[in-house]
Amino acid sequence: MTMTAGIHRMTPRSTPTTATSGPTVAAGTVRAWVDLAAARGVGRSALLERAQLDLHALADQDQRIPLAKLVTLIRAAKELSSDPALALHFGETIDCADYSVASMISYACETVADALAQRNRYGRLMADVECDRPDRYLLERAQGSVWLIDTRRNPNEIPELTEAFFARVAWASHQQGETPFLQAAHFTHAEPAYRAEYDRIFQVPLVFGSHRNALLMDAAWLQQRIALEPSYVFGILSAHAEALLESLDAAKTFRGRVESLLMPILHTGDASIERIAGKLGLSRQTLFRRLKAEGVTFERVLDELRHTLALYYLQGQKVSVNETAYLVGFSDPAAFSRAFKRWTGSRPHWMRQRTEAGESAAAQAKPSST
């Protein structure tokens, strides 16, 4: 798949991602593992049931899924496919650019060094795991070579993540000429029973039980050109990735958790502090204090979320004013109109009319295809 093909299904959103506790991964990452397992004869339904997931949860590749569910799914896939080396096979067969904006960005970078820098910036969108450094991937020079070091914390708890990424780098190295850039590979986990698959895929000296997960590469690797897509694609994808990062960070705040619970119930008109406190398992007073610690009140969070979503619906979703009022929790369109004027200084009907006028002008200006 080319990057430009992927752009059409990836529209930046202003709505928050769903908050979850603990490390998370993108739904697209989970779907990539499901697709690999399915290609090896594992039933999707049985696999998703083991991880307590459904296909609907994976429909939006940017949706956040608890990392623990991915781990359960990977290990179920290894069992059901009778392939203990499945993570290695994931790395050598799956192109994550088909599933993640973070990987797609790499194809629009000039060099491998540029791609690694972007991987450090946006890699959290694929898997927001805990690391010992701000940058997950470090480069350490070594006499004409360079160590690529993965600083993920407690890597032996999920060695499959190391296997998948390192196998992908090894696979790419062997595609780039007669002399691969990969020179050695170190792993913190113990040597597995399927060592032969490591030898086949990496084809370099291997060290297990090392003090770090690291690949030794010829330094020339960093200057290898990529640029498989036009430079303008980088800007498009980066804008989308930045919006997702902002949403991911917001979901980690307590305010983000409240917003994620408010989103699906706004239209009911019962978006009360008592109801949200109950969903969080907190008292009303504790919820008030937690929000106050972040400098906001429940009323402000609710009001600003309604404001954001009202603009989102009226400016591009072809939603009427009355429908928008309902979606953001106003049973009385007049009350919504007053709130909207307080937010923006204008009436919602004026906003809808300006949006429609802009769409009409754009349509008239579009060149004819005949």
Question: Your description of this structure?
Answer:
The chain has 370 residues and is an alpha+beta fold. The protein is 52% helix and 9% strand. The protein has helices at residues 3-7, 27-39, 44-50, 67-81, 86-93, 101-106, 112-122, 159-174, 195-202, 231-252, 254-262, 273-280, 284-293, 298-316, 321-327, 333-344, 348-365; strands at 24-26, 64-66, 127-128, 137-142, 145-150, 182-187, 206-208, 213-218. It has a five-stranded mixed β-sheet with strand order 4-5-8-6-7, with helices on one face. Helix 9 (195-202) links the parallel strand 6 (182-187) and strand 7 (206-208). The two termini are 29 Å apart.
As a percent range, the share of helical residues equals 40-55%
Distance between the termini: 29 Å
**Strand-pairing-aware structural class:** alpha+beta
Shape: elongated
Low-confidence stretches: 1-19, 365-370
The SSE order reads: HEHHEHHHHEEEHEHEEHHHHHHHH
Q: Sheet bearing the most strands, described?
A: 5 strands, mixed
> Approximately what portion of the residues adopt beta-strand conformation?
5-15%
Assembly state: single chain
What's the total helix number? 17
- On the 0 to 100 scale, the average pLDDT is 82
The tally of beta strands, per DSSP, is 8
| Spatial strand order of the main sheet | 4-5-8-6-7
Question: What integer value in Å does the Rg equal?
Answer: 24 Å
